[in-house]
Amino acid sequence: MTPCILITGGAGYIGSHTAVTLMEAGHRVVIIDNLCNSSPRVLDRLRRLCGNSFEFVQADVRDGAALDAIFTQHPVNSVIHFAGLKAVGESMAQPLRYFDNNVGSTISLLQAMDRADVRRIVFSSSATVYGDPQQVPIPETAPLKATNPYGRTKLICEDMLRDLQCADPRWQVAILRYFNPVGAHPSGLIGEAPSGVPNNLMPYITQVAVGQRDYLSIFGNDYPTPDGTGVRDYIHVMDLARGHLAALDHLANEQQSITVNLGTGYGVSVKQLVDTFSRVAGRPIAHRHVARRSGDVAACYADTSLARTILGWQAEHDIARMCEDAWRWQSINPTGYAS
Ligand code: NAD
Ligand code: UFG
Known about the structure:
This protein is of the alpha/beta class. It has two domains: 4-183 and 234-263 and 308-315, Rossmann fold; 201-231 and 266-302 and 320-338, UDP-galactose 4-epimerase, domain 1, CATH 3.90.25.10. It contains eleven helices and 14 strands. The strands form four sheets. The chain has a seven-stranded parallel sheet, sandwiched between helices. Strands 12-9-14 form a three-stranded mixed sheet. Strand 2, helix 2 and strand 3 form a beta-alpha-beta unit. Bound molecules: nicotinamide-adenine-dinucleotide (NAD) and uridine-5'-diphosphate-4-deoxy-4-fluoro-alpha-D-galactose. Nicotinamide-adenine-dinucleotide binds next to helix 1, helix 5, strand 5 and strand 7.
């Protein structure tokens, strides 16, 4: 039987785009998702894009028996672990829920993989593990520090994976630290569909553009950045998806564990993103300047040299393309998957 890749959280934003990229590259895919932050309609969209070349299991990754059944029924040779909760503010209000879900699901998954003799894993980490960075661009060797429970769950999972590699060299682990994923598949069929009020900048901008929100609040205009607004490393979700393919290829070919930043290496300010979006979408984005958001850092962007050197990967899409694809998705699907 042709080997396949298990994607946890594959109905979510990054997981669904990665599933498409893997299937387009000829891989068979099994998705496990409990749909706690995604819509079953994603699956219809994936079928429209890729046919029936994937299986879907609705289950919680903390359910070891459900994982055992997947490993028994499918010839899984690697896993990409996206499943997790990701809202920083929510993690501060409900820390136990975050530790239970994010750390619990990772332990349950690693145990099931061990039982099934599958020890190749790509893990979704985040630039949040760098805390308030002392230098930009941020290299992978920068000090690690969590500033909220969500970030702590990522650091704990990273540490767990490092301990596992030390204990048993058969484990092949790629820890990928994403910067700020934005944009959507060029078809406009899948994209980012946050429930409720978006926490992140790009979905807020697209919802203002489509008339669902009155205006964007720009958090802070007195940062030590060129125009005073926060600077981030926005990366097109399709580039990010391709980074997972490169990481899997690296693990299969080199059998060596890695920790790599996935970003563009370029910092873009809130104001620059808003201006670019307005130009691309051909409409103004109403906005107001308000106070800084607590916990935000002034600037955060990646040193991407390691990804280029060891994965042979680099981001290709620029900010205009990110805005164009995000806008296509939002304008075709004004209310996300409910449209
Ligand atoms: P998302 O919420 O769109 O996708 C996560 C998916 O996991 C959802 O479909 C959800 O239903 C599912 N899920 C959550 N807990 C589960 C569980 N216990 N069992 C089964 N399914 C479960 O989020 P995303 O933006 O696609 O993020 C994917 C991963 O990347 C997350 O681990 C996130 O922390 C990480 N990450 C995201 C960003 C970002 O800005 N989007 C940045 C850095 C890292
Ligand atoms: N911003 C606004 N208005 C908004 C939302 C955001 O001005 O309505 C600003 C923020 O202040 C920041 C920038 O836009 O300067 C980006 O903010 P996001 O919330 O989109 O992204 P963050 O960099 O704050 O955080 C995101 C994820 C984190 C993750 C981090 C690094 O939400 O979980 O990227 O990967 F850890």
